[in-house]
Protein backbone atom coordinates (compact mmCIF):
# COMPACT_ATOMS: atom_id res chain seq x y z
CA UNK A 1 0.00 0.00 0.00
CA UNK A 2 2.80 2.41 0.91
CA UNK A 3 4.65 1.64 -2.31
CA UNK A 4 1.50 2.20 -4.36
CA UNK A 5 0.86 5.52 -2.64
CA UNK A 6 4.43 6.67 -3.19
CA UNK A 7 4.35 5.77 -6.85
CA UNK A 8 0.99 7.44 -7.35
CA UNK A 9 2.09 10.57 -5.52
CA UNK A 10 5.27 10.74 -7.56
CA UNK A 11 3.34 10.34 -10.82
CA UNK A 12 0.86 12.97 -9.72
CA UNK A 13 3.69 15.33 -8.92
CA UNK A 14 5.23 14.82 -12.34
CA UNK A 15 1.85 15.47 -14.01
CA UNK A 16 1.29 18.62 -11.95
CA UNK A 17 4.78 19.83 -12.83
CA UNK A 18 4.19 19.17 -16.53
CA UNK A 19 0.81 20.86 -16.28
CA UNK A 20 2.37 23.94 -14.72
CA UNK A 21 5.09 24.02 -17.35
CA UNK A 22 2.47 23.95 -20.12
CA UNK A 23 0.21 26.63 -18.64
CA UNK A 24 -0.57 29.11 -21.46
CA UNK A 25 0.36 32.77 -21.22
CA UNK A 26 -2.86 34.27 -19.82
CA UNK A 27 -2.28 37.70 -21.35
CA UNK A 28 -1.77 36.33 -24.86
CA UNK A 29 -4.72 33.95 -24.56
CA UNK A 30 -6.86 36.91 -23.49
CA UNK A 31 -5.83 38.80 -26.63
CA UNK A 32 -6.60 35.78 -28.80
CA UNK A 33 -10.02 35.34 -27.18
CA UNK A 34 -10.92 38.99 -27.61
CA UNK A 35 -9.91 39.09 -31.27
CA UNK A 36 -11.45 35.74 -32.11
CA UNK A 37 -14.73 36.15 -30.29
CA UNK A 38 -15.36 39.89 -30.65
CA UNK A 39 -13.76 40.88 -33.97
CA UNK A 40 -14.22 37.69 -35.98
CA UNK A 41 -14.14 37.62 -39.78
CA UNK A 42 -14.89 33.90 -40.04
CA UNK A 43 -18.37 34.35 -41.52
CA UNK A 44 -17.10 36.82 -44.11
CA UNK A 45 -14.44 34.29 -45.11
CA UNK A 46 -17.12 31.58 -45.31
CA UNK A 47 -19.37 33.82 -47.42
CA UNK A 48 -16.61 34.35 -49.95
CA UNK A 49 -15.74 30.66 -50.12
CA UNK A 50 -19.35 29.54 -50.59
CA UNK A 51 -21.80 32.14 -51.91
CA UNK A 52 -19.24 34.15 -53.89
CA UNK A 53 -17.03 31.40 -55.35
CA UNK A 54 -19.53 28.53 -55.39
CA UNK A 55 -18.85 24.77 -55.44
CA UNK A 56 -15.16 23.82 -55.35
CA UNK A 57 -14.98 20.42 -57.03
CA UNK A 58 -11.40 19.30 -57.66
CA UNK A 59 -9.75 21.21 -60.54
CA UNK A 60 -12.99 23.08 -61.29
CA UNK A 61 -13.17 26.80 -62.07
CA UNK A 62 -14.89 27.30 -58.70
CA UNK A 63 -11.95 25.81 -56.82
CA UNK A 64 -9.48 27.90 -58.79
CA UNK A 65 -11.48 31.10 -58.09
CA UNK A 66 -11.53 30.32 -54.37
CA UNK A 67 -7.80 29.54 -54.33
CA UNK A 68 -6.97 32.86 -55.98
CA UNK A 69 -9.20 34.68 -53.51
CA UNK A 70 -7.62 32.91 -50.53
CA UNK A 71 -4.08 33.74 -51.63
CA UNK A 72 -4.96 37.41 -52.00
CA UNK A 73 -6.76 37.50 -48.66
CA UNK A 74 -3.93 35.83 -46.78
CA UNK A 75 -1.45 38.25 -48.38
CA UNK A 76 -3.63 41.25 -47.47
CA UNK A 77 -3.54 40.11 -43.84
CA UNK A 78 0.25 40.17 -43.93
CA UNK A 79 1.10 36.49 -44.38
CA UNK A 80 4.17 35.76 -46.47
CA UNK A 81 4.83 33.59 -49.51
CA UNK A 82 1.17 32.90 -50.33
CA UNK A 83 1.23 30.66 -53.38
CA UNK A 84 -0.21 27.68 -55.18
CA UNK A 85 1.95 24.58 -54.84
CA UNK A 86 1.43 21.60 -57.14
CA UNK A 87 1.14 18.27 -55.35
CA UNK A 88 0.90 16.03 -58.44
CA UNK A 89 -1.37 15.11 -61.33
CA UNK A 90 -5.08 15.01 -60.62
CA UNK A 91 -6.92 14.99 -63.94
CA UNK A 92 -9.87 16.82 -65.46
CA UNK A 93 -11.83 19.60 -63.88
CA UNK A 94 -15.61 19.73 -64.36
CA UNK A 95 -18.56 21.98 -63.68
CA UNK A 96 -22.30 22.26 -64.32
CA UNK A 97 -23.12 25.07 -66.75
CA UNK A 98 -26.86 24.37 -66.89
CA UNK A 99 -29.33 21.98 -65.32
CA UNK A 100 -33.06 21.64 -65.88
CA UNK A 101 -35.31 18.56 -65.59
CA UNK A 102 -39.02 18.11 -65.00
CA UNK A 103 -41.81 15.63 -65.58
CA UNK A 104 -44.28 16.79 -68.22
CA UNK A 105 -46.56 13.73 -68.01
CA UNK A 106 -48.70 12.87 -66.14
CA UNK A 107 -48.26 16.53 -65.08
CA UNK A 108 -45.54 19.16 -64.78
CA UNK A 109 -43.20 18.81 -61.81
CA UNK A 110 -39.65 20.18 -61.43
CA UNK A 111 -37.21 17.47 -60.35
CA UNK A 112 -34.75 17.95 -57.46
CA UNK A 113 -31.51 16.50 -58.78
CA UNK A 114 -27.96 17.21 -59.88
CA UNK A 115 -25.77 15.89 -62.69
CA UNK A 116 -23.24 13.43 -61.34
CA UNK A 117 -19.71 14.77 -61.25
CA UNK A 118 -17.60 14.25 -64.38
CA UNK A 119 -20.58 13.16 -66.52
CA UNK A 120 -21.43 14.81 -69.86
CA UNK A 121 -24.51 16.90 -70.51
CA UNK A 122 -27.41 16.01 -72.76
CA UNK A 123 -27.15 16.63 -76.48
CA UNK A 124 -29.23 19.78 -76.16
CA UNK A 125 -32.80 19.75 -74.77
CA UNK A 126 -34.39 16.30 -74.79
CA UNK A 127 -37.90 15.00 -74.08
CA UNK A 128 -38.70 11.32 -73.71
CA UNK A 129 -40.93 8.74 -72.08
CA UNK A 130 -39.00 7.15 -69.24
CA UNK A 131 -37.92 3.55 -69.80
CA UNK A 132 -37.76 1.39 -66.67
CA UNK A 133 -34.87 -1.10 -66.84
CA UNK A 134 -35.16 -4.34 -64.89
CA UNK A 135 -31.89 -6.27 -64.81
CA UNK A 136 -30.51 -8.57 -62.14
CA UNK A 137 -27.79 -10.04 -64.35
CA UNK A 138 -25.76 -9.17 -67.43
CA UNK A 139 -27.94 -11.53 -69.50
CA UNK A 140 -31.06 -9.50 -68.58
CA UNK A 141 -29.69 -6.50 -70.48
CA UNK A 142 -29.98 -8.16 -73.89
CA UNK A 143 -33.71 -7.43 -74.21
CA UNK A 144 -33.04 -3.66 -74.19
CA UNK A 145 -30.52 -3.58 -77.03
CA UNK A 146 -31.55 -1.39 -79.95
CA UNK A 147 -34.40 0.23 -77.99
CA UNK A 148 -32.79 2.98 -75.89
CA UNK A 149 -31.24 5.53 -78.27
CA UNK A 150 -32.09 9.02 -77.06
CA UNK A 151 -34.27 7.67 -74.25
CA UNK A 152 -34.39 8.71 -70.60
CA UNK A 153 -33.93 5.58 -68.50
CA UNK A 154 -33.99 4.56 -64.85
CA UNK A 155 -33.45 1.34 -62.92
CA UNK A 156 -36.19 -0.59 -61.19
CA UNK A 157 -34.65 -0.07 -57.75
CA UNK A 158 -35.12 2.35 -54.89
CA UNK A 159 -35.48 1.81 -51.15
CA UNK A 160 -38.72 3.17 -49.64
CA UNK A 161 -38.27 6.18 -47.37
CA UNK A 162 -38.87 5.90 -43.65
CA UNK A 163 -39.34 8.72 -41.18
CA UNK A 164 -36.36 9.27 -38.95
CA UNK A 165 -36.58 8.57 -35.23
CA UNK A 166 -33.49 10.60 -34.38
CA UNK A 167 -33.08 14.37 -34.63
CA UNK A 168 -31.10 15.72 -37.57
CA UNK A 169 -29.23 18.19 -35.36
CA UNK A 170 -27.26 17.15 -32.30
CA UNK A 171 -24.40 18.05 -30.00
CA UNK A 172 -22.26 15.70 -27.97
CA UNK A 173 -23.71 14.91 -24.56
CA UNK A 174 -21.40 15.12 -21.55
CA UNK A 175 -21.76 11.36 -21.11
CA UNK A 176 -20.56 10.74 -24.68
CA UNK A 177 -17.54 12.99 -24.21
CA UNK A 178 -16.76 11.24 -20.93
CA UNK A 179 -16.70 7.87 -22.69
CA UNK A 180 -14.39 9.30 -25.35
CA UNK A 181 -12.04 10.56 -22.63
CA UNK A 182 -11.98 7.10 -21.02
CA UNK A 183 -10.87 5.33 -24.22
CA UNK A 184 -7.76 3.18 -23.95
CA UNK A 185 -5.16 2.63 -26.67
CA UNK A 186 -5.37 -0.65 -28.52
CA UNK A 187 -2.47 -2.82 -29.54
CA UNK A 188 -1.46 -1.87 -33.05
CA UNK A 189 -2.91 -3.93 -35.80
CA UNK A 190 -5.40 -5.84 -33.65
CA UNK A 191 -8.58 -6.64 -35.53
CA UNK A 192 -11.60 -8.71 -34.71
CA UNK A 193 -12.62 -11.77 -36.73
CA UNK A 194 -14.37 -11.24 -40.03
CA UNK A 195 -18.12 -11.16 -39.42
CA UNK A 196 -20.15 -14.12 -40.57
CA UNK A 197 -21.51 -13.76 -44.05
CA UNK A 198 -18.73 -11.41 -45.15
CA UNK A 199 -17.76 -13.64 -48.04
CA UNK A 200 -21.36 -13.85 -49.26
CA UNK A 201 -21.70 -10.09 -49.02
CA UNK A 202 -18.51 -9.62 -51.01
CA UNK A 203 -19.77 -12.00 -53.70
CA UNK A 204 -23.03 -10.05 -53.95
CA UNK A 205 -21.17 -6.78 -54.26
CA UNK A 206 -18.96 -8.17 -57.02
CA UNK A 207 -22.04 -9.36 -58.90
CA UNK A 208 -23.68 -5.93 -58.58
CA UNK A 209 -20.53 -4.23 -59.87
CA UNK A 210 -20.42 -6.60 -62.82
CA UNK A 211 -24.02 -5.81 -63.76
CA UNK A 212 -23.48 -2.05 -63.31
CA UNK A 213 -20.32 -2.05 -65.42
CA UNK A 214 -22.04 -4.02 -68.19
CA UNK A 215 -25.07 -1.76 -68.00
CA UNK A 216 -22.98 1.40 -68.20
CA UNK A 217 -21.15 0.09 -71.26
CA UNK A 218 -24.42 -0.91 -72.93
CA UNK A 219 -26.07 2.45 -72.25
CA UNK A 220 -23.13 4.28 -73.84
CA UNK A 221 -23.26 1.93 -76.82
CA UNK A 222 -27.02 2.46 -77.12
CA UNK A 223 -26.52 6.26 -77.01
CA UNK A 224 -29.04 6.66 -74.22
CA UNK A 225 -30.20 10.25 -73.74
CA UNK A 226 -30.11 10.45 -69.93
CA UNK A 227 -29.90 8.14 -66.90
CA UNK A 228 -31.82 8.85 -63.68
CA UNK A 229 -30.27 7.32 -60.55
CA UNK A 230 -31.57 7.10 -57.00
CA UNK A 231 -29.77 9.44 -54.60
CA UNK A 232 -29.32 8.61 -50.94
CA UNK A 233 -31.17 11.01 -48.67
CA UNK A 234 -34.68 12.24 -47.99
CA UNK A 235 -36.91 15.26 -47.36
CA UNK A 236 -35.40 17.10 -50.31
CA UNK A 237 -31.82 16.44 -49.25
CA UNK A 238 -29.72 14.22 -51.47
CA UNK A 239 -26.11 13.14 -51.19
CA UNK A 240 -24.09 13.40 -54.35
CA UNK A 241 -21.14 11.58 -55.87
CA UNK A 242 -19.16 11.19 -59.07
CA UNK A 243 -20.58 9.32 -62.05
CA UNK A 244 -17.35 8.95 -63.99
CA UNK A 245 -13.59 9.03 -63.68
CA UNK A 246 -11.73 12.35 -63.67
CA UNK A 247 -8.71 10.74 -65.40
CA UNK A 248 -7.60 12.39 -68.62
CA UNK A 249 -8.08 9.11 -70.50
CA UNK A 250 -11.37 8.15 -68.82
CA UNK A 251 -13.81 6.12 -70.88
CA UNK A 252 -16.95 7.95 -72.05
CA UNK A 253 -20.12 7.60 -69.99
CA UNK A 254 -23.76 8.59 -70.46
CA UNK A 255 -25.34 11.76 -69.06
CA UNK A 256 -26.59 10.99 -65.56
CA UNK A 257 -28.77 12.73 -63.00
CA UNK A 258 -28.70 11.90 -59.30
CA UNK A 259 -32.36 12.36 -58.31
CA UNK A 260 -33.72 13.15 -54.85
CA UNK A 261 -35.45 10.13 -53.32
CA UNK A 262 -38.95 11.61 -53.28
CA UNK A 263 -38.86 12.48 -56.98
CA UNK A 264 -37.22 9.20 -58.00
CA UNK A 265 -39.72 7.09 -56.06
CA UNK A 266 -42.63 9.15 -57.43
CA UNK A 267 -41.56 8.32 -60.99
CA UNK A 268 -40.81 4.70 -60.08
CA UNK A 269 -44.28 4.12 -58.60
CA UNK A 270 -45.94 5.50 -61.72
CA UNK A 271 -43.88 3.30 -64.03
CA UNK A 272 -44.45 0.18 -61.95
CA UNK A 273 -48.19 0.89 -62.19
CA UNK A 274 -47.94 0.99 -65.98
CA UNK A 275 -48.39 4.78 -66.28
CA UNK A 276 -46.54 6.88 -68.84
CA UNK A 277 -44.01 9.30 -67.43
CA UNK A 278 -42.50 11.89 -69.76
CA UNK A 279 -39.52 14.01 -68.78
CA UNK A 280 -37.85 16.96 -70.43
CA UNK A 281 -34.30 17.91 -69.58
CA UNK A 282 -31.49 20.18 -70.66
CA UNK A 283 -28.07 19.68 -69.10
CA UNK A 284 -24.77 21.26 -70.03
CA UNK A 285 -21.48 20.41 -68.33
CA UNK A 286 -17.92 21.41 -69.14
CA UNK A 287 -14.60 19.60 -68.74
CA UNK A 288 -11.26 21.30 -68.07
CA UNK A 289 -8.08 19.43 -68.99
CA UNK A 290 -5.67 22.24 -69.88
CA UNK A 291 -3.88 21.87 -66.53
CA UNK A 292 -4.33 18.46 -64.89
CA UNK A 293 -2.09 19.33 -61.93
CA UNK A 294 -3.60 19.58 -58.46
CA UNK A 295 -2.65 22.52 -56.22
CA UNK A 296 -2.68 23.47 -52.54
CA UNK A 297 -2.78 27.02 -51.19
CA UNK A 298 0.21 27.65 -48.92
CA UNK A 299 1.07 30.74 -46.83
CA UNK A 300 2.95 31.41 -43.61
CA UNK A 301 3.92 33.65 -40.74
CA UNK A 302 7.74 33.39 -40.58
CA UNK A 303 9.41 32.37 -37.34
CA UNK A 304 11.64 34.84 -35.53
CA UNK A 305 13.70 32.74 -33.11
CA UNK A 306 17.24 32.13 -34.35
CA UNK A 307 17.24 28.51 -33.26
CA UNK A 308 13.59 27.62 -33.97
CA UNK A 309 12.53 29.68 -36.99
CA UNK A 310 13.28 26.81 -39.39
CA UNK A 311 10.87 24.56 -37.51
CA UNK A 312 7.21 24.43 -38.48
CA UNK A 313 3.75 24.45 -36.95
CA UNK A 314 1.18 23.60 -39.61
CA UNK A 315 -2.59 23.95 -39.74
CA UNK A 316 -4.97 23.12 -42.54
CA UNK A 317 -8.25 21.90 -43.90
CA UNK A 318 -9.39 20.74 -47.28
CA UNK A 319 -10.54 23.43 -49.66
CA UNK A 320 -12.30 21.30 -52.26
CA UNK A 321 -15.95 20.28 -52.06
CA UNK A 322 -18.66 18.42 -53.91
CA UNK A 323 -20.88 20.21 -56.39
CA UNK A 324 -24.57 19.91 -55.44
CA UNK A 325 -24.20 22.54 -52.70
CA UNK A 326 -21.52 25.14 -52.03
CA UNK A 327 -19.41 23.02 -49.67
CA UNK A 328 -20.07 25.08 -46.55
CA UNK A 329 -19.71 22.53 -43.76
CA UNK A 330 -17.49 20.31 -45.91
CA UNK A 331 -15.18 22.05 -45.80
CA UNK A 332 -15.44 25.81 -46.14
CA UNK A 333 -16.03 25.72 -42.38
CA UNK A 334 -12.66 24.14 -41.61
CA UNK A 335 -10.82 26.24 -44.19
CA UNK A 336 -12.42 29.47 -42.96
CA UNK A 337 -11.57 28.61 -39.35
CA UNK A 338 -7.92 27.99 -40.25
CA UNK A 339 -7.71 31.21 -42.25
CA UNK A 340 -9.34 33.06 -39.36
CA UNK A 341 -6.83 31.56 -36.90
CA UNK A 342 -4.01 32.99 -39.00
CA UNK A 343 -5.78 36.36 -39.17
CA UNK A 344 -6.17 36.39 -35.38
CA UNK A 345 -2.46 35.77 -34.85
CA UNK A 346 -1.53 38.54 -37.29
CA UNK A 347 -4.04 40.93 -35.72
CA UNK A 348 -2.51 40.59 -32.26
CA UNK A 349 0.92 41.18 -33.87
CA UNK A 350 2.23 37.82 -32.75
CA UNK A 351 5.88 37.13 -33.65
CA UNK A 352 6.20 33.34 -33.46
CA UNK A 353 9.38 31.50 -32.58
CA UNK A 354 8.60 28.76 -35.10
CA UNK A 355 7.24 29.39 -38.59
CA UNK A 356 3.47 28.92 -38.81
CA UNK A 357 2.21 27.58 -42.11
CA UNK A 358 -1.35 27.18 -43.36
CA UNK A 359 -2.27 24.71 -46.09
CA UNK A 360 -5.63 24.60 -47.86
CA UNK A 361 -5.66 21.18 -49.47
CA UNK A 362 -7.25 20.17 -52.75
CA UNK A 363 -8.71 16.81 -53.83
CA UNK A 364 -9.25 15.55 -50.30
CA UNK A 365 -12.60 14.21 -51.44
CA UNK A 366 -10.96 11.87 -53.92
CA UNK A 367 -8.47 10.40 -51.42
CA UNK A 368 -6.58 13.04 -49.35
CA UNK A 369 -4.53 13.68 -52.49
CA UNK A 370 -3.46 17.24 -51.70
CA UNK A 371 -2.13 16.54 -48.21
CA UNK A 372 -0.61 13.19 -49.15
CA UNK A 373 1.17 14.72 -52.14
CA UNK A 374 2.49 17.57 -49.99
CA UNK A 375 3.71 15.23 -47.25
CA UNK A 376 5.41 12.94 -49.76
CA UNK A 377 7.19 15.90 -51.31
CA UNK A 378 8.30 17.58 -48.08
CA UNK A 379 8.45 14.97 -45.34
CA UNK A 380 8.62 11.40 -46.60
CA UNK A 381 6.99 8.41 -48.24
CA UNK A 382 4.74 6.36 -45.93
CA UNK A 383 5.08 3.33 -48.20
CA UNK A 384 8.83 3.10 -47.69
CA UNK A 385 9.22 5.30 -44.59
CA UNK A 386 12.13 7.01 -46.31
CA UNK A 387 11.94 10.41 -44.62
CA UNK A 388 13.36 13.82 -45.51
CA UNK A 389 15.39 15.94 -43.07
CA UNK A 390 12.38 18.31 -42.80
CA UNK A 391 10.32 15.56 -41.21
CA UNK A 392 12.13 16.29 -37.96
CA UNK A 393 11.50 20.03 -38.22
CA UNK A 394 7.71 20.03 -37.97
CA UNK A 395 6.32 20.10 -34.45
CA UNK A 396 2.65 19.35 -35.21
CA UNK A 397 -0.13 19.56 -37.77
CA UNK A 398 -3.69 20.56 -36.74
CA UNK A 399 -6.70 19.85 -38.94
CA UNK A 400 -10.39 20.77 -38.98
CA UNK A 401 -12.83 18.85 -41.18
CA UNK A 402 -15.93 17.64 -39.35
CA UNK A 403 -18.40 20.39 -40.17
CA UNK A 404 -19.54 23.56 -38.45
CA UNK A 405 -19.70 22.18 -34.90
CA UNK A 406 -17.67 23.79 -32.17
CA UNK A 407 -14.54 22.17 -30.80
CA UNK A 408 -15.12 19.89 -27.80
CA UNK A 409 -11.56 18.59 -27.52
CA UNK A 410 -8.84 16.75 -29.41
CA UNK A 411 -8.31 13.26 -30.83
CA UNK A 412 -4.77 12.30 -29.78
CA UNK A 413 -4.42 9.75 -32.59
CA UNK A 414 -2.80 7.40 -30.10
CA UNK A 415 -0.25 10.03 -29.00
CA UNK A 416 -0.70 9.70 -25.24
CA UNK A 417 2.27 11.95 -24.40
CA UNK A 418 0.51 14.93 -25.99
CA UNK A 419 -2.54 14.48 -23.73
CA UNK A 420 -1.39 16.44 -20.64
CA UNK A 421 -0.07 19.24 -22.85
CA UNK A 422 -3.33 19.67 -24.74
CA UNK A 423 -5.35 19.33 -21.53
CA UNK A 424 -3.50 22.32 -20.14
CA UNK A 425 -3.99 24.29 -23.36
CA UNK A 426 -7.74 23.66 -23.30
CA UNK A 427 -8.13 24.85 -19.70
CA UNK A 428 -8.74 28.52 -20.64
CA UNK A 429 -11.57 27.40 -22.92
CA UNK A 430 -13.52 25.19 -20.54
CA UNK A 431 -16.23 27.87 -20.45
CA UNK A 432 -16.60 27.44 -24.22
CA UNK A 433 -17.20 23.69 -23.93
CA UNK A 434 -13.78 22.40 -25.01
CA UNK A 435 -12.45 20.00 -22.37
CA UNK A 436 -12.16 16.48 -23.79
CA UNK A 437 -8.94 14.68 -24.61
CA UNK A 438 -9.27 11.21 -26.10
CA UNK A 439 -6.49 8.85 -27.13
CA UNK A 440 -8.78 7.65 -29.93
CA UNK A 441 -8.05 7.95 -33.62
CA UNK A 442 -10.38 9.50 -36.12
CA UNK A 443 -10.05 8.97 -39.85
CA UNK A 444 -10.99 10.41 -43.20
CA UNK A 445 -9.21 13.75 -42.77
CA UNK A 446 -5.88 15.23 -43.84
CA UNK A 447 -4.13 14.79 -40.50
CA UNK A 448 -3.71 11.15 -41.49
CA UNK A 449 -1.16 12.09 -44.16
CA UNK A 450 1.11 13.55 -41.46
CA UNK A 451 0.49 10.81 -38.93
CA UNK A 452 1.47 8.24 -41.56
CA UNK A 453 5.07 9.51 -41.60
CA UNK A 454 5.45 9.94 -37.85
CA UNK A 455 4.52 13.64 -37.60
CA UNK A 456 2.11 14.51 -34.77
CA UNK A 457 -1.14 15.10 -36.67
CA UNK A 458 -4.40 15.94 -34.92
CA UNK A 459 -8.08 16.45 -35.73
CA UNK A 460 -10.28 18.27 -33.22
CA UNK A 461 -13.43 16.75 -31.73
CA UNK A 462 -16.43 18.70 -33.05
CA UNK A 463 -20.13 18.63 -32.23
CA UNK A 464 -21.90 16.59 -34.93
CA UNK A 465 -24.67 19.14 -35.63
CA UNK A 466 -26.44 18.03 -38.85
CA UNK A 467 -23.23 17.14 -40.65
CA UNK A 468 -23.92 13.45 -41.28
CA UNK A 469 -27.70 13.78 -41.52
CA UNK A 470 -28.10 16.82 -43.79
CA UNK A 471 -25.00 18.54 -45.12
CA UNK A 472 -22.06 16.18 -45.72
CA UNK A 473 -21.74 15.90 -49.55
CA UNK A 474 -25.34 17.06 -50.01
CA UNK A 475 -27.31 19.70 -51.90
CA UNK A 476 -28.03 21.30 -48.50
CA UNK A 477 -24.39 22.04 -47.74
CA UNK A 478 -24.75 25.82 -47.94
CA UNK A 479 -23.77 28.92 -45.99
CA UNK A 480 -27.06 28.83 -44.07
CA UNK A 481 -25.93 25.65 -42.28
CA UNK A 482 -22.94 27.36 -40.66
CA UNK A 483 -23.13 28.23 -36.95
CA UNK A 484 -21.30 31.50 -36.39
CA UNK A 485 -20.59 31.17 -32.66
CA UNK A 486 -19.20 27.66 -33.14
CA UNK A 487 -16.83 28.77 -35.89
CA UNK A 488 -15.64 31.72 -33.78
CA UNK A 489 -14.95 29.36 -30.88
CA UNK A 490 -13.05 26.93 -33.11
CA UNK A 491 -10.86 29.60 -34.68
CA UNK A 492 -10.02 31.06 -31.27
CA UNK A 493 -9.01 27.70 -29.79
CA UNK A 494 -6.94 26.73 -32.83
CA UNK A 495 -5.16 30.09 -32.81
CA UNK A 496 -4.22 29.43 -29.18
CA UNK A 497 -2.97 25.92 -29.97
CA UNK A 498 -0.84 27.32 -32.77
CA UNK A 499 0.52 30.02 -30.47
CA UNK A 500 1.40 27.50 -27.75
CA UNK A 501 2.99 25.05 -30.18
CA UNK A 502 5.08 27.81 -31.74
CA UNK A 503 6.37 29.10 -28.42
CA UNK A 504 6.93 25.78 -26.67
CA UNK A 505 10.60 25.02 -25.91
CA UNK A 506 10.32 21.48 -27.27
CA UNK A 507 8.31 20.07 -30.12
CA UNK A 508 5.11 18.13 -29.51
CA UNK A 509 6.03 14.59 -28.39
CA UNK A 510 5.98 11.93 -31.09
CA UNK A 511 4.71 8.38 -31.20
CA UNK A 512 6.92 5.53 -32.25
CA UNK A 513 7.71 5.86 -35.94
CA UNK A 514 5.39 3.72 -38.09
CA UNK A 515 6.93 0.68 -39.71
CA UNK A 516 7.17 0.22 -43.48
CA UNK A 517 5.52 -0.89 -45.66
CA UNK A 518 2.27 -1.26 -43.66
CA UNK A 519 1.88 0.87 -40.55
CA UNK A 520 -0.41 -0.41 -37.83
CA UNK A 521 -2.82 2.13 -36.35
CA UNK A 522 -2.64 2.58 -32.60
CA UNK A 523 -5.69 3.55 -30.58
CA UNK A 524 -9.43 3.17 -30.52
CA UNK A 525 -10.98 4.40 -33.71
CA UNK A 526 -13.73 6.95 -34.05
CA UNK A 527 -15.97 7.01 -37.14
CA UNK A 528 -14.17 8.22 -40.25
CA UNK A 529 -15.76 11.30 -41.78
CA UNK A 530 -14.36 13.33 -44.63
UniProtKB/TrEMBL annotation:
Zinc listed as a keyword: yes
Pfam families noted in UniProt: Peptidase_M28
Q: Where is the composition biased (Low complexity)?
A: 514-530
Please provide the record's keywords in A-Z order. Answer: Carboxypeptidase, Endoplasmic reticulum, Glycoprotein, Golgi apparatus, Hydrolase, Lysosome, Metal-binding, Metalloprotease, Protease, Secreted, Signal, Zinc, Zymogen
Answer whether the UniProt record assigns the keyword Hydrolase to this protein: yes
What InterPro entries does the record point to? CPQ, Peptidase_M28
Oligomeric state and partners? Answer: Homodimer. The monomeric form is inactive while the homodimer is active.
Q: What is this protein called?
A: Carboxypeptidase Q
Q: Which organism is it from?
A: Pedobacter rhodius
Amino acid sequence: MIKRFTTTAFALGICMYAFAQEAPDAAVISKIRKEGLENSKVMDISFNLTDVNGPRLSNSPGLKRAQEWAMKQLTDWGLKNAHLEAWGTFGKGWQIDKYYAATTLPYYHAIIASPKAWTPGTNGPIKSDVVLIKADSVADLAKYKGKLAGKIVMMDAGAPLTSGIRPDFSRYADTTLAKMAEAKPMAGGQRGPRPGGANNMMAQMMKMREVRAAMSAMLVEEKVGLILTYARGGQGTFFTSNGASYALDAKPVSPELEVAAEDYLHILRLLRAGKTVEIEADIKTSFYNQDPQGYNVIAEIPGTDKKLKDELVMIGGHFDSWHAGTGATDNAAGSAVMMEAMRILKSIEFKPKRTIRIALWSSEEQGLFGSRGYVAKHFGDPKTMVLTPDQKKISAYYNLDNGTGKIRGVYLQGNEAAGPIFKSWLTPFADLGATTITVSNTGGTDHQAFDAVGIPGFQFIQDPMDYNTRTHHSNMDTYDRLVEDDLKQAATIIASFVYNTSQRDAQIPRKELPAAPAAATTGTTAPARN
